[in-house]
Every structure is written in structure tokens, then in C-alpha cells.
Design a protein that fits this description.
Low-confidence stretches: 1-24
Distance between the termini: 39 Å
Shape: globular
Helix content: 10-25%
Oligomer: single chain
Largest sheet: 11 strands, mixed
Number of helices: 12
Number of strands: 36
Mean pLDDT: 93
Amino acid sequence: MSNYRLKSVILIALLVFSSSFIQAKILLPSVFSDNMVLQQKTNAAIWGKATAGKAVKINVSWNKVNYGTITDTNGNWKIKVATPGYGGPYTITISDGELLVLNNVLIGDVWICSGQSNMEMPLAGWGKILNYEKEIADAKYPNIRLLQAEHITSDLPINDAKVVNSGWQECSPKYIAEFSSTAYFFAREVYEKTKIPIGLIHTSWGGTIAEAWTSAESLKKMADFSAAVDKIRAQAKKPSTVSYEEKVQNWVKMTTDKDSGYQAGQAKWLTSETADWKSMTLPVLWEDAALKNFDGVVWFSRKITMPQNWKTSGIKLNLGAIDDNDITYVNGVKVGETAGWNLARSYAIPADLLKPGENIITVRVFDSGGGGGIYGEAKELNLSNNAGEKISLAGDWKYKVGLDFKNIEAKPYEDNGPNRPTVLYNAMIHPYLQFSIKGAIWYQGESNADRAYQYRELFPTMIKDWRQKWGQGDFPFYFVQLANFMQVDNTPVESAWAELREAQQKTLSLPNTGMATIIDIGDAKDIHPKNKQEVGKRLGLIALAKTYGQKNNYSGPVYQSSKTEGKQIRLTFGNTENGLKAGGDKELTGFAIAGADKKFYWAKANIQGNQIIVSSDQVANPVAVRYAWGNNPVCNLISNDGLPASPFRTDTWQGITFGKK
């Protein structure tokens, strides 16, 4: 079914569902329905609308208390009911003279499940996790209940969310297939160990940024977002008459106009002399080379010599992956262009375009955020023909900056898109603030990785924001650290993803938080790891230990301190009651060491009790150690029960995302 048709079907279902409430006198928000879970051992709010000045009464089947109130002048009402320890099923009867009954209600623990696509990733559908068909068939847990929020944005806070499947449903093969796999496996782990009914409110959106999930009041306190919040509030009062598409077109045109590599709209750096250009060894992300913290346009040039006898049939120019977009020329003639940071480039070259002797390849690379450059594997960078001959293009290229985006206005936000500050908090979190919960689980960060230093403040701000808005104190907030992803680095390099993981780890300084480390179960070629069973289980282990009081380990070894001892550095770890070991019964991997020159080399690492001794013959006077520091590190430090150590570093040297906004 197409996305358009699917949205149409959902819209029709919502209209039908809404009309049934319109005909009733009592109107309830979408968080209340048959099959719901109410938080145990609390005064749980139930609210809605009815006729102004009308008496509303509630009776619940778990006690004999008569609850009641009078609606205000707008018809709003709210009643708090005392909930017992977990159990059920129960009924809730609401009346203003006519009865509305909620059936099959459980009392248990309610968890908010939010983030971006790795939280959203369903068991089936586009997700297709490991063994998804069997997992779906086995998902018969009537005491786990599911509420799925629909994607919606709002420039201002709204009071009701849109949901699918007519509200809460029991966990069954029918309803679990398109539900969050991480949330489900978390709930299954907790339920199987405690038998407490679990209610999951899944409200996430793939590809989204943390500031979208944070309230205006909290973001206004951060200088980086204050102006954007004001802009969105102003837009809510006076919507723009210019479409988002037109704004982007105008912005892209501006980048071309201001690109020094263009003159009067025509590329001028195609065959020019490059003696004053700088050199860069490709492939590499330019943040890992000479262009730290750079977003913008860079032109690359490479002269190649074509042998006299080289076959000219079926010639292809292969450039591997380029982040984000490229326009590629050979001898001043455009041969191709591609938009997409993770797509391999391969352009057919007309036989008469190349000539024996010197030829010039020019690539204009446009990067709007995060890593940038020609970054694929060296073996993918070549000129090839039908005879199987190849001319490697890996190595030194000349480069020149065409435009630094710091010198122009920022790329426009989509007027109704999700990646704008506050808009997902407003539409997908705010509607649940009155609903009592046990805690929250969170899986996000990929979309903020290029601004990892900013995330150090933003992520804790969001957590504190939710806690303040819910008014339940420091409720449990457990999150997933980013998995390993992208190609493996042959040498130690800087990494935005490593810095984002560090920002996540630093957030553990907030009370009642926990982090599931999954640096061992990622996929180099897929940003969405398929082993969501383990992700959910590790979140569950945290909850079982920290929230439910069970005695189980939930973390790998935790770095505590370092001490330089001559040519080696001694690292001390906490949470070592289960011991330290190298996974796979191999030598420890993933450690790098550097001297004062800040140049890191792979290091030897040996376990001594709860400590690890790190050294390298290439570093005589070491001052810093890093572990699992990279996009996709090869690392294997674990506890004896198999939980991995989180990436860390002993230095505080400025990273590549410092200052990025």
C-alpha cells in the first residue's frame, strides 16, 4: 500500500472514530480507550470534555469510591482516581447522565517510548528485525498493551494526540507487527521478570532532532535555540506565504551565487591551474582531515595520466560515497551529479572525452551538515573500463573551498516538518503530560551527531524539561547509546558519532537515568541495527535493576580514572564485580594512545584485575587513551556476563563538533 493511500485510510478511520465521540456527551482524549493501562499506586488523572456546568461522575471496578466534579465554562473536566497495585482487568464508567464505559482496563506501569527511527523501527514493515516472523507469531502478551501515536507536528502545544488502531490494543501478532520493536522487547523483558502489566505509549518519529521533542520554555533558555523558538511562535500567529520548497530553492540558488567556484552561474574551476590549492588525501571525511567543523562547498581536482594503449570502451568514473551531494566533471564537461550522503557514485564517461596523456577530474562537493567529502573506501575510487583495467584515484587531490556556510544564512526549516524546535513536543508529548507514567525510554541521537557538543546541554535539558512538565519528580529515564555504524577506520580518527556517545554518557550525571550500550551490535551498512531484541533487553535490565529492585547487572565495565606510568597508562574501571574480559576470547581491541602531539596510535591493552594497562611502541610519553572512539570501532571489552564497556576517552581535547550549531 502506498504511503499516500495508507495515510488516507488512517485519516478516514480517525474521522469515523472521532465522529463516534462527537455523538456522545462525554469526550475523552485519545489516550483513554478500552484496553488501556493506568499507572499503579497513584492518583491517576482522567479528563475530557462535556456540556458546560454538567456534573461528571466516575466509578471504577477496583474500589467503591464515587468520584465526581463539575465541568468548567468550556466544558473541561478532570478527576483523579486512586489506583491500587497492579492487576485487572477492570472497567471505568464515566457519566454525565449517559454512560461511557472503558472495558478491559489494566493497572500496571506505563512507559513513554520516544526518539527517532531506531525507536520507531517496527518488527515487520520497513524494519524486518532479526527473526521477525517468529517474533511476531510469538507476541501473545495480553498484559502488555500498545498505544501508537501518529506523526503530527504543531507550532504550539495541543491537548490531544492522534493515535492509530482506535486507541490501546492488547499485544498480539495482529498489532505488534508495526509497533516499535525496541519498546516491545523492553516491555517483554520487564513483564516476564515482574508480571506487572505494561502499557507502552509509543510516540517517535524517524530522522528527528532532540530539540523538536523539547518545549519552548526550556529551549528559550539555550542561546542556540532562542531565536528559532521565537520564529516558530511568530509563524504560528502569522503563517508564511512562501512555500518550504520555494525557500529551499532560493537558499540553494544563494549557495551557488556565493560559491567562489562559480561565475555568472557557470563553473570556473574546472580546468584552471591548481597550484594555489591545498592538498587532501582521499577518501576521507574532511572533518578528519584539514576542514574541522566545516559545512559548505569544496571543489576537488585530480590530474590523471591516461596510457596510450588504455581501452576507451565502457569507461566509468567511480568515486564511492560522497557526503552530501556532488557535481562531477571530466576535462571541463559535466559527467554526472548525485544527491545523497550514502550513495556510491559511478558515472559513465564518453570515449571521446578522455585523451591519452593528462586529464582533469573535478568534483564539487556540497555538504549541509555533519560529515562531508569523498569518504568511501580507497578501492572504490578509480577509473575503470570494460577490459577490467583500473586507474586508482585514491591519494592526493587538490582542493579549494568554494563557500563556507558559516558566512550565509542557515538552511530554512520545513514550515510543517518535524525537524524544527518544539514541534514534536507540542504535538506528540504535550498531550500526555497529565497521564501518569512510570518512566520513559529513549533511542535517538543520530540526527544530532554533527552537533554533539551542543547535545551535552540539549539532551539533559530535554530530560529535565519532560520531568518538570509531567510533575512526577525525577521519573526513570533510560536511553540507548548510539550503535557502531559506517565503515571501520584503519587508523584512529576523530568522530562525531563518538562525541555524541560521549554526550550521552555525560547525561548519566542526571539522577535516575540509565544508558544501554550497544557498541557491539551495530551494522556498518545499516543505521538501523536488526538485533532489537538485545537493545530492548538491555533497556529492560536497567529498569529491572534501578526501577524494580531486582539484583541483576545492567552495565559493562565503566571507566573511572587513568594514571600515566612511564611508557604506559593504567586505567581503572568500576562495575567490575563480574570481572573484565576480552570478548571472543581474543586480545583486547579498540584502544588507542597518544602523546602530547595528540596523534593517536592503536595500542596494546592487558587486563590486570579491575585495571587495564595500555601502551604502544610508537608513543614513548603517553598522555591520553581512547577506547572505541570512532563511528564503527572494533572493540571487545566486556564484563564476564557479556555486556560491553561504553566508549570513553581520558583526554578533554576539543572535538570536531565543538561550536557546531
